[in-house]
Amino acid sequence: MTHPTSDANASQATQPPSPPAAAAQHELPRAGASAMLLHSGVDLRRFFALHALGAVFPLTAGILLFGWRALAAVAMVVASAALARLCWKRIGMRGGQLHLTHCLWFALLLAMTLPAHLFSGSVRLTTHTGGSTDAMLWPVLVVGGAILVMFMWLLGGLGSGRVHPVLVTHLLLFVCFGELLVPRYVLQRGRVFVGDVLDAAPGDAPRPISQPWLDAAQIPGHNAIRIEPASQQLTAFTTGARSVNRTWISLDSLLRDRMPPLEDLLVGGHPAPIGSGSAIAAIIGGLFLLYRGVIDYRVPLLIFIGAILAMLLLPVPVLINETDVVRRWLPMRVKGVGWELSLTLVNYELMASPLAFMAFFLATWPAVRPMTRRGRTVYALLAGVLSGVYQLYVNVAIGPYLGLLTASLLTPAFDKVFRSRTLV
């Protein structure tokens, strides 16, 4: 006769692990086991669906600000990733882990890091010899989707990769195409969504940069306006690589004369990648994810705190001339700068960069962040500080991505150092 306790133990041994046990294994459940619950109490399909709903806010803002080209660019990246998956899923055991929902979600994120003007037939570029040539831009979108799936295969399947494939793909595209990824166009408010973002008057900004987008007079005969993005102006100043327009410039004059109204970066109306056109939309999407309990509030909060501290404490230029760059630690203590200008610079750095998008939609991915609370605290602070460092001294447009990439490389170490220990 079989003992009842033995039967019960055998039955329990054959059951799938509980949600906390699955989380403790540092993995997301396989896509095929859609009934399995995550630690937040939702199954895998609902997990992706909630993230997609959160992304609707910045995506919708981007489509409104940059028109139908933004929508077409997103569709092209997603379609190319779906086609690339058909090939890579047949290669090795890792190919079986390339689930469609996973690929589509990452492709959507990648598309939101790119500018809408990439969906165009050709553009005239200036070569290093001073000549000009026509270049096709839409293949960048196709290549991006295909490379994304390749990195998903190389870095591991669902729940196993500790480096976010979207980060690696975007940074590779930035290295390869550089200037082509700089957004310089935004629709006029009377032509949102329906306008062509490339239909702009030639030359520099056709309106005073101090005039808010919502109040700017409409430019007849054109759908969009061309503006040098704030991220480029900030990068040129804070890196000290060159004097802006080769003239004397102070921090005060940079913020007063060369920066757009802050509301254009916060609400919308300034050139940016599709997912970063409106910082408030990205924040609202992140708050939705927090409300539904699918991300940890500590990660975005501490990333912002770390970035703000780095930008306030680290040396920044207070004056640039043709031959010298004057940097000062704690710029708020410098005469003529003070807290007002220091905080204004920080606000522009935060709003002109994809920090909000990175903090809510990339840094919170379960496979990238540490599993323990203490590990996530250190990880988020480090990602924020490094984002501030990279923005000040490398490039505002990719600083948050570099910061997150560096911090995520240390995630296995954080899991090891801060792993939970039993009391007995």
Q: What structural category characterises the helix and strand content?
A: mainly alpha
The succession of helices and strands, N to C, reads: HHHHHHEEHHEEHEHHHHEEHHHHH
Low-confidence stretches: 1-37, 204-208
Instruction: Determine the number of helices (DSSP H or I, runs of at least 4 residues).
Output: 18
> What general outline do the C-alpha atoms trace?
globular
Numbering strands along the chain, what is their spatial order in the largest sheet? 5-6-7
Could you characterize what this model shows?
With 424 residues, the protein is mainly alpha-helical. Helix content is 52%, strand content 6%. The protein has helices at residues 4-14, 19-24, 44-66, 68-88, 92-95, 100-112, 138-155, 165-177, 230-238, 251-258, 262-266, 279-291, 298-313, 338-352, 355-362, 373-393, 399-409, 411-417; strands spanning 123-126, 132-135, 185-187, 224-226, 249-250, 316-320, 325-328. The strands form 3 sheets. It has a 3-stranded antiparallel sheet. The longest helix has 23 residues, at 44-66. Residues 1-37 and 204-208 have low confidence and may be disordered.
Summarize the helices and strands and which ones pair or pack.
Layout lengths: L3 H11 L4 H6 L19 H23 L1 H21 L3 H4 L4 H13 L10 E4 L5 E4 L2 H18 L9 H13 L7 E3 L36 E3 L3 H9 L10 E2 H8 L3 H5 L12 H13 L6 H16 L2 E5 L4 E4 L9 H15 L2 H8 L10 H21 L5 H11 L1 H7 L7
Antiparallel strand pairs: 1-2, 3-4, 5-6, 6-7
Helix pairs in contact: 3-4, 3-6, 3-12, 4-6, 4-7, 6-7, 6-8, 7-8, 12-15, 13-14, 13-15, 13-16, 15-17, 16-17, 16-18
